[in-house]
Specification:
single chain; alpha+beta; 20 helices; 16 strands; globular
Length: about 500
């Protein structure tokens, strides 16, 4: 398809009118304000899309992999929890690294801003445009190149969906080292780019440890081949780590080599009810000691959080109401051995009255129903209205302390639905959220920057696993020293001198 100037004016005029209609009807359609308006962001000095640009993309990818209508682009312009929204007028869907390289080289030469996007399951606004950046979507880059069932190494493209990889590995007696609630939608490239943690980190570690190699494309189109499949490769700087967790700001990850553990022959799950957080800490300590090598996951949920699943999503809990709950999962090679260890552990914590009630199962359907109570929490919170969601790490003894502090701080504030916390107890990562009927600047200013100041005083991290994205760059100094931020900015300038990759994200302006 050829775009002449007349066609382009018609396209841009139609898109502009559509944006205005969306702004007028956003309440009726339950869409948030445009990010630029809600947060008063100034657009960078980037080129505006024109007919020549569109023609290049169409010649390269074909018309079916270049989306330009407002209706087609809308899902790529908004995050799934409806916190941020941009107005990109062009979504590109490359299939190969070479296509990504040509797109980025062209955008760099023409100063066109680019927003890399995987499954768009992020929670800090890192994967959607702020203004009209080109969206580079990796959904068509979904090839699995190899699975070595001896070494346990998987090599695939960045657009592979996490759950699909897990299913493919299962045929080889393997599994992915990470497990997320968004596994049915998230892409492995996005997981790497945000250094996603998830439910199995306690046992299998984070992606800095399990990713053996990767391939990435710099802003100028240069392909960086770091796709090692070796467990040990100590030759110089480990450049792969620069891309893991950099959220597409240094380059676009296109291929991945990842170490995958053997799928456990025995899996057991306990769901426990407790009366206090002090009891939770004692149960955690005992679980680490008694369950040792088979302990795979240890999660905590408070009652207010569980309510969003049982009330908003109509899921059923196998336990009565308690102030707190724990999920403890074990992975091992002998079911008889694992059940014996788990049952002895549960008998001890029950006799000592650390837990009030509990259920243990190894039936897949029952385990899924219990894990749904944990994995669908964010979905449940969205039903409350608007959710202010925070992903922080705190010293384990202070894991839950922010919740009662914030409840007291927000007491009596109009529009609040609930203040609660849950998360990955085993690694100190708490998910804290305040839900309200609709977005409110008053509530936002009561929460921020207080939540980050509180975290910093306890020497915690303002982002445990979700990344910095759009929402946190101005608060990064609460977790990183001025010297660290300077070095990160220097790396950004070296890898992306024109600043076209994921602008307005990760680093403070």
């Amino acid at each position: 398809m050829f775009f002449n100037n007349k066609m382009l004016r018609r396209l841009l005029t139609a898109s502009t009118k559509c944006i205005r209609r969306q702004q007028k009807s956003q309440r009726a359609s339950n869409l948030p304000e445009l990010t630029k308006d809600r947060y008063a962001v100034k657009r960078g000095d980037y080129a505006m899309l024109n007919g020549q640009h569109l023609q290049f993309f169409t010649d390269l990818l074909g018309s079916k992999r270049v989306l330009t209508s407002a209706e087609e682009c809308q899902p790529y312009n908004i995050d799934w929890i409806k916190n941020v929204r941009g107005y990109s007028r062009c979504v590109l869907k490359p299939e190969t690294t070479e296509e990504v390289a040509k797109i980025l080289a062209f955008c760099n030469n023409n100063r066109i801003a680019v927003c890399p996007q995987g499954g768009n399951t992020g929670l800090v606004g890192g994967s959607v445009p702020v203004f009209d950046e080109i969206v580079l979507c990796t959904s068509q880059m979904n090839t699995i190149y190899s699975i070595n069932d001896t070494s346990g190494v998987l090599v695939c493209q960045a657009g592979c969906i996490l759950e699909n990889l897990d299913k493919a590995l299962e045929e080889h007696g393997l599994m992915m080292p990470l497990d997320l609630g968004a596994k049915g939608s998230c892409h492995i490239g996005g997981n790497l780019s945000t250094n996603a943690g998830g439910l199995r980190l306690l046992r299998y570690g984070n992606l800095h440890g399990t990713v053996l190699g990767l391939e990435a494309v710099k802003a100028d189109g240069e392909i960086i081949d770091l796709l090692s499949t070796l467990k040990k490769d100590n030759t110089g700087f480990h450049l792969k780590h620069l891309f893991i967790g950099s959220e597409g700001a240094l380059g676009v990850v296109t291929k991945v080599a990842i170490q995958c553990p053997a799928k456990p022959k025995a899996t057991n799950l306990a769901f426990l009810g407790l009366e206090s957080f002090s009891h939770i800490l004692k149960v955690l300590k005992k679980a680490k000691g008694d369950l040792g090598e088979i302990l795979a996951s240890c999660e905590m949920i408070d009652q207010s959080t569980l309510d969003v699943c049982t009330c908003n999503l109509k899921l059923k809990s196998p336990l009565a109401e308690f102030p707190f709950y724990m999920l403890i999962e074990t992975h091992g090679s002998s079911d008889a051995h694992d059940q014996e260890k788990l049952n002895l552990f549960l008998e001890d914590v029950m006799l000592s009255k650390l837990i009030l009630d509990g259920i243990v199962t190894n039936e897949p359907s029952k385990m899924k129903n219990i894990w749904d109570l944990r994995e669908r929490i964010t979905e449940g919170f969205v039903r409350d209205g608007y959710v202010f969601k925070y992903d922080i790490s705190l010293p384990i003894e202070h894991f839950y302390s922010l919740v009662p502090v914030m409840r007291e701080r927000l007491a009596g504030t109009e529009g609040i639905v609930r203040v609660s916390g849950y998360g990955h107890l085993g690694d100190g990562n708490v998910h804290f959220q305040v839900s309200c009927k609709q977005f409110s600047n008053e509530i936002l200013h009561q929460i921020e920057p207080f939540v980050y100041e509180y975290t910093s005083k306890l020497r915690g991290s303002i982002s445990a696993e979700h990344g910095i994205g759009f929402r946190k760059p101005k608060y990064i100094h609460y977790s990183k020293s001025p010297e660290s931020i300077v070095i990160m900015k220097e790396l950004k300038k070296m890898f992306d001198p024109n600043g076209i990759l994921n602008p307005y994200k990760v680093l403070p302006m």
